[in-house]
Amino acid sequence: MENNNGNLLKRQHGLFVSICFVVGFIVGTGIFFLPGRVLYEAGGDLRLGVMAWIIGGLMISTCVYMFSIFAGRYEKIHGFVDYSEAIVGKKYGYLAGWFFAVMYQPAGYAIIAWITSGFTATLSGLSSADEVYLPFRFFISAFFMAMAFWMNYLAPKIPVKFNVATTIARMIPLVLMGTVGVVIGLALGDGGAGAAAGYPLQVTPGAGNASLFAAISATAFAFNGWQAALAFNSEVKNSKRNFPIALLFGFLFVIVIYVLYFVGVVIASPDGGRVIMQGGGANFAQGTHNAFVNIFGQGSSNVLIGFMIISGLGILNACCLGMSRAMYSLGRRNLGPMPDRMRQLDPKTNVPNNSMVMAVGISFLWLFVIFANTNWFAGWFGTFRFSLPDFYNFTFFLLLIPIFFCFIVRQKELHWFKRIVAPVIAIVGAGFMYATYWIGSWVHAVVYTGVFLFLAVIGFLLYGKNR
Questions:
Q1: What residues contact residue 92 under an 8 Å CB cut-off, 6+ apart?
Q2: What are the φ and ψ backbone dihedral angles of 282, each rounded to 5 degrees?
Q3: Please, how many CA atoms are within 13 Å of residue 41, restricted to the half-sphere of its CB?
Q4: How far, in Å, CA of 21 to CA of 245, rounded?
Q5: Phi, psi dihedrals of residue 13, rounded to the nearest 5°
Q6: Residue 153 within a domain
Q7: Cα Rg for the chain, rounded, in angstroms?
Q8: Assigned domain for 57 exists
Q9: What is the H or E stretch that residue 169 is in?
Q10: Does residue 197 lie in a domain region?
Q11: Residue 163, phi-psi category: left (phi > 0), alpha (psi -120 to 50), beta (remainder)
Q12: Distance CA 38, CA 281 (A)
């Protein structure tokens, strides 16, 4: 890597801001609708659903623990690229950076904007039956993406503060439902008390098959996002100490909050969670609405949707912050398209603006893929639904396995637990999460593999310097 000292990002974030980055990247909009899908996949059994959240979180936490070890040993620019390059090799590090720059972060940016536009449509009084519903969501999604981009581009100090503020704000409904919802829901005795006692709910025909594997894979999207926080490892003060702490503490904190919230929503629902399971958990707005109204009154409905929109905008801002570093990290290594431009930092703001512009441009292409899945395009993909969250999670877990394996082979100076036991457990965790996608739908797994390989080939065609 060239030593371009004039293009180095500043160390400016302390431990608290780093924890907010980790928590803020993870806790987005997914937690507000995934309880319905998890409960659906668990066949309406709350106990099985809780197991899915805990197992899914612990499986992924093994990977987070390994990355906390990496963060204490390697540090250059963009953690995932640093670790992949140092442990496996330069070309694998490039593949990891290309994955983040083209697939993971821009796709995540688009899907968060799309979900947030759904909450906005609900607050505006629109329903999926309205003719203008899908065009409205598309244009609002594009608007949110553009606004987050301009805020990061023109005033880069504001997004960091905005991330901290929205992270704290989105904790409010989660903590309220996870504590007050459980206590009052059980006291009222008309919610999901039967499920809370471990008895399966009476579900409608076809409403899930009590599959623990499917329920665990459904939790993956809610736990997703900690990977994006790795982009900031070189911008954290005393990074080799603070960043590992932020990763582990932030992720474990999220597991606890998610489990409490899931239990609270189901128990507090006056219908025992039946509504949030309808349509495979797709009716998330009505189900979550019922739970909050049952506990906090009718006036809490719009307030809740407002918090959902704030959560969406917060994670959208965090995504823009993170993805602006991906192509920059490749440019700093003289790799990828236009490396001289991608590694440039704005002299006034110290932000890689060119890298950010390219990432946002790619994200609009992924937004079109999302829109093409809708009925507005009469199903360009036929009956097949290309799920972006499943696509990039599926690929990410696959990319982790060679990193952990090479760490075992090459890091002979480490203690046996860190060198062998921890990475073996992490391989099992990543392999387990990867396998759940094949078990859930091998057709989707094949398509996702094909798309990843196609984009990887394009990436390596641009591997050489100054292409």
A1: 84, 85, 402, 403
A2: -70, -25
A3: 21
A4: 12
A5: -110, 130
A6: yes
A7: 22
A8: yes
A9: helix 157-176
A10: yes
A11: alpha
A12: 8
Give backbone dihedrals phi and psi of 33, rounded to 5 degrees, phi first. -120, -15
Domain of residue 442: give its range.
11-461
Tokens of 241: 């100490």
Q: Which of 166, 152, 128 is nearest to 308 (CA)?
A: 166
Nearest to 111 by CA among 349, 389, 344: 389
How many domains are contained in the chain?
Answer: 1
Query: Which of 388, 390, 426 minimizes the C-alpha distance to 406?
Result: 426
Q: Quick one: tokens of 381?
A: 């993909």
Per-residue pLDDT of the chain (467 residues; tens, 9 = 90+): 444 445 555 666 677 878 877 887 788 766 777 777 788 778 778 888 889 999 888 888 888 888 888 877 776 666 788 888 888 989 999 998 899 899 888 988 898 898 888 888 877 888 777 778 888 989 999 999 999 898 888 877 787 778 778 778 778 878 877 777 677 656 655 444 444 333 344 333 334 445 777 788 778 778 877 777 777 776 777 777 788 888 889 899 999 988 888 888 887 776 555 555 554 444 445 556 666 776 676 666 677 777 778 878 888 887 887 788 888 888 888 888 888 888 888 777 777 888 889 999 999 999 988 888 776 665 566 667 777 777 888 888 889 899 999 999 888 787 788 888 888 988 988 888 788 788 877 888 898 889 999 999 999 888 865 55
The amino acid that residue 351 corresponds to is V
**CA neighbor of 117 nearest in space, from 154, 146, 158:** 146
324: domain CATH number is 1.20.1740.10
Contact 148, 309 (CB under 8 A): no
CB-count exposure of residue 264 (10 Å: 0-12, 13-18, 19+): buried
Residue 4 lies inside a defined structural domain of this protein: no
